Amino acid sequence: MGLLDILLGRTRPVAPDLDRLFALPSAAVTLQAAAGFTATGDGAVCFATVEGAAFEQTHREVRALLDADSDRTGPPVELRRDGYGYSWLVSRRSPDRLPQLVGDLHAVNTSLEANGFGPQLLCSLAGFRDDTGRKLALVYLYKRGTYYPFGPLPGGAGRRDSALELQVRAVLGDDLRIEPDLGRWFPVWGAPGL
């Protein structure tokens, strides 16, 4: 970083640290004890939609890698596109298999990154639910290396539970690197499992 960058207030982007995904299982224990949310077994990796043979080859490699594990509640990896033009690689596990789900998310991210699709990666998320049916996602921002909670309101039609999100931030502050800039807590409407 040069003097001009310092004077203009530019900062270096945080390098992605995919190993931070492995903090989710221990954070899930804290989340359950403090707020009553348990894992749903749904997780996804979101990226800017990519077309072409190189992506199709990477998608086949990811499917083959995850297909080797038969402990699933659905297909190994399902590709979905949302109404906002983003793609989601979705993995489903039994709710008590969060560490394996995190391994899936890590493998998908690593494969996409290794095949040159790192700049298209946006976020990864794992879904949670409480006994009353409230939904929550813990979202990992790939380019920031941080997490934030996203809590859509039931039938909310584009509304989110900000109070729940702030509560979860306080609960998980010691377990996860929480994104300090609330302006970067983007809603992930249409995310699989939410």
Summary?
It is built from 5 helices and 6 strands. It is α+β, with helices and mostly antiparallel strands and 194 residues long.
What features would you describe in this structure?
With 194 residues, the protein is α+β, with helices and mostly antiparallel strands. The protein has one domain. The protein has five helices and six strands. The protein has helices spanning 3-7, 24-35, 53-67, 98-117, 162-172; strands at 38-48, 78-81, 86-92, 121-129, 135-141, 146-150. Strands 2-3-1-4-5-6 form a six-stranded antiparallel beta sheet. The longest helix has 20 residues, at 98-117.
Determine the mean pLDDT. 87
**Helix/strand order, N-terminal first:** HHEHEEHEEEH
Describe the largest sheet: 6 strands, antiparallel
Which segments are poorly predicted (pLDDT under 50) over 5 or more consecutive residues? none
